[in-house]
Amino acid sequence: MNVGEIAQRVGGEVAGDPQLQITGVAGLEFAGPNDLTFADSPRAVERIAATRSGCVLIPAGTASPGRTTISVANPKLAFIRATEAILPVPQAIASIHATAVIAASACLADDVVVCAHVVIDEAVTVGARTVLGAGVVIGQGAAIGADAVLHANVHIYPGVCIGNRVVIHAGTVIGADGFGYVFADGRHQKFPQLGRVIIEDDVEIGSNSTIDRGSLGDTIIGQGTKIDNLVQIAHNVRIGRHCVIAAQAGIAGSSTIGDYVVLAGQVGISDKVRLEDRVVVGAQSGIPTGKVVRAGSAMMGSPARPLASFKKVYAHWMNLPNLAKKVERLSRQLAGQSKSDGS
Amino acid sequence: MNVGEIAQRVGGEVAGDPQLQITGVAGLEFAGPNDLTFADSPRAVERIAATRSGCVLIPAGTASPGRTTISVANPKLAFIRATEAILPVPQAIASIHATAVIAASACLADDVVVCAHVVIDEAVTVGARTVLGAGVVIGQGAAIGADAVLHANVHIYPGVCIGNRVVIHAGTVIGADGFGYVFADGRHQKFPQLGRVIIEDDVEIGSNSTIDRGSLGDTIIGQGTKIDNLVQIAHNVRIGRHCVIAAQAGIAGSSTIGDYVVLAGQVGISDKVRLEDRVVVGAQSGIPTGKVVRAGSAMMGSPARPLASFKKVYAHWMNLPNLAKKVERLSRQLAGQSKSDGS
Amino acid sequence: MNVGEIAQRVGGEVAGDPQLQITGVAGLEFAGPNDLTFADSPRAVERIAATRSGCVLIPAGTASPGRTTISVANPKLAFIRATEAILPVPQAIASIHATAVIAASACLADDVVVCAHVVIDEAVTVGARTVLGAGVVIGQGAAIGADAVLHANVHIYPGVCIGNRVVIHAGTVIGADGFGYVFADGRHQKFPQLGRVIIEDDVEIGSNSTIDRGSLGDTIIGQGTKIDNLVQIAHNVRIGRHCVIAAQAGIAGSSTIGDYVVLAGQVGISDKVRLEDRVVVGAQSGIPTGKVVRAGSAMMGSPARPLASFKKVYAHWMNLPNLAKKVERLSRQLAGQSKSDGS
Asked: Is the backbone of residue C83 left (phi > 0), alpha (psi -120 to 50) or beta?
């Protein structure tokens, strides 16, 4: 592809050489003379001069004289689109490996890819063009949508429903029993874990994460939500659409999360919490049991407070040694005064 | 089963129709006319009227006029017992899958279930009726008890001992080397990790958790203890009986934990800590190296303090901006007084 | 081996019986009459008298009269060396299991051990004497060095490079896509994750950890670095040499970590952080986005501060209720004074 064709694809305007051949993509610092790259801020545009990049996607209204550029509204988004065109992901060839163990009643659509040592139990359905990586295990009655990718050693427990275009990275476990016990007669007795997990369309889940099945209801992950590595989602949790849940965050039982919520890394959400739409929770913060957080709030701390309040209190916290000194001084002054008053 | 038979089984008293057929179980909000459900508080009992549930287990001393109920001392526990009767878990049919790889010296008891692609190394023993899910790997000389269930892709390292009725969910790793090094000659040199892991009877462990083998002694998980997903238990840790360890908690090397201890989600226990019986540690709290926490204490914070003290200090912490203002005011008053005193 | 031979091997000096046969190693409390053990502090040396240990490695300059001892500069290091001699790790016999699935273009060096159900994709290279545990999956074009050990169910994604003598414990995932999205048109759109992971020589990684591939550049783990269980390392992170990263720590995207850095358990490093050489971060601490921490600093808290400052502020924090009382008292005193002044 040449620069002109890329500009057309991403709806941008070329400055420089539209005939330049582009064969790869790279970050600004690594890009060579035939690589496309991007600069998504005026500051990044300034750094273009120092690079070897052949062509740079830049924000509309900026320029890099003497370089070949394509100006667009959103350079990073245009870079995604251009990469899809320059480096198309090779389509896996439909095939079922001889070592896969597939139950007689399983129903696989056309053009699926089933890699080595996959195990598919009775009454499972798998949608068209879905890829099951090596060692994937799918339990009885689970349903996997079309165009999904389950990487190696993913384990789907019985009855779990996975939507279309869902991507699940290696080692993730969906649908294990929730952690529910009743303490009686000196021991913890297991509460039934009979619900399902429902993963809606376009969800992506990282590696070695765990999403437990509901106890009596279902655990639900809404459409387009993205979940990172080593994330824990407990039984009966309901997560809305287009949320972002960063690595090592955990959500305890029966909590409800709205749409467009962002949880940063290592966040802990206790049980029966309700986070309304567009809530943002800062890294390592914790939301206590039963708490309701209103739409659009930013929260920080463990236990968490509204971000502005956290920042204010935190500033005072750092200043505590000075405050204590000041109180000491006041105390001495007052004692001195009392004496000088003869009282 | 009908309501009368269920009442008899759980030792409860029927109000309403003892002949009503019960075919399923459900939560209060989802239950239909042939489902059994439960209400474990007076507040939940009030909500029965608004539901479609056929029969509700309620606390003795409460009532829901016009509905079929069974009153019992502990409705949630009775629900567990009733569910076992209404929806018995189907017994897996004893079988050894043709793709399993089993060493000649391994000794499997009668009626085991060995699923596809399981690998069992030399000198392993597996007790009666134990189920090994697809892709389970059991290292040399490990011993697995009777009636245990190891879900898909669980990995048991050599020499590990697993008790009877232990349940381990998918992807969990038991017996990997502990994290022990001696820093010398500019690099970290590995300390021997020669001990075992001993998991006693009736333990349940969630998905993708990790329990390391002892370095010179053993790592021990006591009878009836329940461990959630993504939990880390380091080398030489000893956990007592009937503890509850929630998701993403971690326990560092050589710490000792008594009986009936509760660790909430994302708790961190440093190395060489001792938690006596019935200690409770709140979510995201951290217990520092070498600390001893007395029996029955509740702890909170990072580093953790006794809960009552934490709450008190936390309340003052939130009030810090006000305290600082007050000190400022006092300071001004005192300065003004000094002036008016002519000093 | 006898005591004299061990002393010679570790460069130590015998007191007592150099002919005593040593057949095992153990911790001080467990050691029997034919076990070697060690005491690495004067306090530990005092406890020798109460043990059954046959021979104890002790620090030069200490003594345990009446017992057989070997005095050395570093008893714990000498114990590592002696253990290697007394209990040599049995060399696995080179073999490729019949159930392994190996692509035609994969290139395996001599004397590799490939266990059951391993899957090796096209263009993979594996170095001499490397061991691939049961169920290991290696993606297209990945390169594994010599004398490496990948335990069961480790998953190496395409293009990842693993050095010599690297050890990776069960269930760990190397090279999954990083967590990068651009939010546009109401949904999160995936940014290309095209980089590699490079693991240098002598790295050891625990169980169920996750290391993501770079987006446009590479994720790099430097020589000799040791990583514990359930650790998350995001895309484009660069970690130097001989670092120690304890369990459940997480490092977010594009952060850079120098040499000899220590991260304690459950530490969170946000994105674009730079930790210079020899930084130490205390358990559960968090380093905020973009922060630079100077060489040799110790950090504590969430968000983290220099350790000395954290300790000081923390002491004042615990004393907050008293400070508040003192301010209250001053306030009353001042009010009383004002009154007695007749103002």
From this structure: alpha
Residue A337 pLDDT > 80: no
Q: In sequence order, what are the beta bridge partners of C126?
A: C108, C144
- Please name the member of C101, C217, C320 whose beta carbon is closest to the beta carbon of A116: C101
**Would the CB atoms of B252 and C266 count as touching at under 8 Å?**
no
The nearest CA of chain A is from the CA of B131 a distance in Å of 14
Helices (H), A242-300: none
> In the beta sheet, which residues pair with residue A114?
A96, A132
The two three-digit tokens of residue C40, written as one number: 């690495």
d(CA C105, CA C143): 13
Question: Cα separation of C71 and C188, whole Å?
Answer: 63
Q: What are phi and psi of C22, to 5 degrees?
A: -115, 125
In DSSP terms, B189 is beta-bridged to B182
Q: Which of C155, C188, C235, C316 is catalytic?
A: C235
pLDDT top residue among B331 and A279: A279
Is the Cβ of A133 closer than 8 Å to some Cβ of chain B?
no
Candidates C247, C253, C309; CA nearest to C284 is: C247
Confidence at A343, pLDDT banded by 50, 70, 90: very low
CB contact under 8 A, C80 and B182: yes
Nearest to B302 by CA among A169, A286, A163, A190: A286
Average pLDDT for B211-227: 97
| B321 contacts chain A (CB < 8 A) | yes
Q: Minimal Cα distance from C335: which residue of A?
A: A334
User: Order of strands, edge to edge, in the sheet holding A24-25?
Assistant: A13-15, A69-72, A55-59, A35-38, A24-25
Catalytic site includes residue C235? yes
Indicate the SS3 state at residue C108: strand
- Does any CB of chain B come closer than 8 Å to the CB of residue C169? yes
Q: Report d(CA A174, CA A219) in Å as an integer.
A: 10
The answer for residues whose C-beta is within 8 angstroms of residue A264's C-beta and 6 or more apart is: A246, A249, A280, A281, A282, A283, A284, A285, C270
What's the whole-number mean pLDDT along residues B30-58? 93
Element containing residue C25 per DSSP (H, E):
strand C24-25
Pairwise CB contact (< 8 Å): B176 & C324:
no
* Structure-block tokens of residue A200: 């809606």
Average pLDDT in the B313-324 region?
92
Q: Taking the C-alpha atoms of B52, B55, B57 and B60 in order, what is their torsion angle to the nearest 10 degrees?
A: 110
CA distances from C289 to B323, C179, C269 (A): 30, 16, 8
Nearest CA to CA, how far is C284 from chain B (Å)? 7
Q: Flag if C133 and B135 touch (Cβ within 8 Å).
A: no
Question: Edge to edge, what strands does the sheet with B219-221 contain?
Answer: B107-108, B125-126, B143-144, B161-162, B197-199, B219-221, B238-239, B256-257, B274-275, B292-293
Inter-CA distances, C133 with A93, B42, B126, C169, Å: 28, 55, 21, 9
pLDDT score for A58 = 97
One DSSP character per residue, B222-260 reads -TT-EE-TT-EE-TT-EE-SS-EE-TT-EE-TT-EE-SS
Of the pLDDT bands very low, low, confident and very high (cuts 50, 70, 90), residue C339 is low
Residues 6 or more apart from A136 whose CB is under 8 A from it? A115, A118, A119, A150, A151, A152, A153, A154, A155, A156
Q: Say if CB B144 and CB B181 are below 8 A apart.
A: no
Residue B281: name the closest of B254, B240, B310 by CA.
Answer: B310
Residue C343 pLDDT more than 50?
Answer: no
Residue of C137, C230, C235, C319 best to disrupt the A interface, most CBs of A under 10 A = C137
**Residues 46..105 of A with a Cβ closer than 8 Å to C: which?**
74, 76-77, 79-80, 83, 87, 97, 99
Per the omega criterion (within 30 degrees of 0), is the bond before C88 cis? no
Task: List, by residue number, the catalytic residues of A.
Answer: 235
Provide the shortest C-alpha distance from residue A151 to chain B (in Å): 14
Q: Which residue of B has its CA nearest to A286?
A: B284
Q: What ipTM score was computed for the predicted complex, to two decimals?
A: 0.95
